[in-house]
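Lab manual, section 2.4: Encoding a predicted structure.

Procedure: take the sequence of the chain (288 residues), apply the prediction step described in section 2.3, and record the output as structure tokens. A sample record is shown.
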Amino acid sequence: MTRPSDLVVARTRAELATARNALEGPVGVVMTMGALHAGHARLIEEARRRAASVLVTIFLNPLQFGPNEDLARYPRTLDDDLRLAREHGADVVFAPGPDVVYPDGDPGVRVAAGPLGAVLEGASRPGHFDGVLTVVNKLFHLTRADLAFFGQKDAQQLLLVRRMVRDLDVPVEVVAVPTVREEDGLAMSSRNRYLTPFDREVALVLQRALRAGEAAAPEGPSAVRRAARDVLVAEPAARVDYLALVDPHDLADVREHHQGEALLAVAARVGSTRLIDNVPLVVGRPVG
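Recorded output:
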């Protein structure tokens, strides 16, 4: 899919305001940290399908990186990002620097993710979701979007954004878009480019574990956890951070006799790269 080369790139708040005022509504926003890939393209395409105008943000948010994480080496590919955004339907790209988003430096007031932000990814990356929600909330205000498109690969982030929108009465509709995978099943991620060929083979264990858990879903929660864990244990080069079967609405661990919706989530470090993935399940055999 191609579009004319009329993409507007805004770097400042004033430029964004001018570009946003020229857009026809409803306006859909896709928020990214750059290093765009086919997963982002799918988000932009869905926004193009659902909204009259599409605005993409490219901002590498320092608030959501811990002191020992990969902010310094996170890929920065703005020229390629603008090309992808244009080709897949964006009208405007907002690509500010930190001084534009945080003009007074680190913000003294932030959005707190609360208990939902303290488990799974939040337990491994303290403060991460406070940084995510703070920038998402700011970008909602700056872009004045009507719809916002987020991938299901980041299931906890999606849940927290929806909770923030509801709890803080943010006037935007949050739209979930299914995870996009590469041909071998690996979930699309900007961090996949860190993987060596060996790491790439090892990383496929995440998807194999999720598929094994999914196949065991009719047998109940214990079977799901056991099947997924057995696959992960068989690949010692993947250092598992967590494997969790949780309620998709509150991230509480699924109890043994649970029947119904669940989310099987995994995080592991492969080489120097930390990867996450998940799959929604229906656990347990239906009654009757």
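Check your result against the sample. The two ends are 48 Å apart (CA to CA).
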